[in-house]
Amino acid sequence: xxxxxxxxxxxxxxxxxxxxxxxxxxxxxxxxxxxxxxxxxxxxxxxxxxxxxxxxxxxxxxxxxxxxxxxxxxxxxxxxxxxxxxxxxxxxxxxxxxxxxxxxxxxxxxxxxxxxxxxxxxxxxxxxxxxxxxxxxxxxxxxxxxxxxxxxxxxxxxxxxxxxxxxxxxxxxxxxxxxxxxxxxxxxxxxxxxxxxxxxxxxxxxxxxxxxxxxxxxxxxxxxxxxxxxxxxxxxxxxxxxxxxxxxxxxxxxxxxxxxxxxxxxxxxxxxxxxxxxxxxxxxxxxxxxxxxxxxxxxxxxxxxxxxxxxxxxxxxxxxxxxxxxxxxxxxxxxxxxxxxxxxxxxxxxxxxxxxxxxxxxxxxxxxxxxxxxxxxxxxxxxxxxxxxxxxxxxxxxxxxxxxxxx
Length: 407
Prior knowledge:
There is one protein chain. By secondary structure, this protein is of the alpha/beta class. It contains 15 helices and 17 strands. The strands form four sheets. The chain has a five-stranded parallel sheet with strand order 2-1-3-4-5, with helices on one face. The termini are far apart. The model is unreliable at 109-117 (pLDDT under 50).
């Protein structure tokens, strides 16, 4: 930071000339820079901020600048309020003590930050830890970190110390971190949560934050220390494993486990909305003949082709499930029983006229189906039992047909 630069907020523009004249009297040459928001000046810059220019969103950044709050009428209580929020001081417009304070600050010898803080044994130890570590004061300003933290966010330790999270992270992420910090300091103790973080290479990673409050000798919160664990790969693996447990490995459709999870959720939603959902149970006719003719490999190929064909005929809002063997369920959303019955008949007719190629031979396959409208006033297990019975009835009626359940 260059000591001769003073930043000022909009309402102080008319007063700048008067203040500059007073400083010139004492041979202080100042470069004045207007700012529209407090995040424009660099960290540790001297900022003159009119009280009426301050927004709530500015509070997290007050302590990361050497902020002087200028008020119309000074009072001790108001001055202390701003100092507790991170301002270094508070003056009235006509207070000559402001001139004295500015001359004192502008006359100080600026020591390079690298000379201000020398590595001690603790710093050497935490630098050896590969996980990012940081600590902040009670005003949410970074006061220390290890090498891994600097490498993680793409800033040197010297660039980080004295900054607010708003200076180092995108606003939408900074707001999440700041909110979590406030909750931790207010509650005390420890905190663990997961959130996204922007790495220095521009990629977004999922991070587990483990933080704790440290206190003064009198037990007052003095700040917080945190450790960051990159759990991106772990979460990706969990998602992949979870998806695998919900997917039929042969056809790639959702499986019975996924159906059980989704159908209960849809059934519960139906209780609180006017949307009508239907369920279709499908079974491949004479599937044993396919296995006998082509072997189990040919039977597997038939199931893959059937699933792919069914998926191509469904709306994006509908869901296909392989329940087991050659049996499938289709959840038809936002549809009443009459329309679902027509959809089922079209599927059976379309399947019967379609020709599949298995081992370079044309194969015609038919389906039998049962269909029911899910009634939220009826037990879900009862509805599943009824649609399965309807499917068996379609089988008994000669196959290649649909048996609806009208309630």
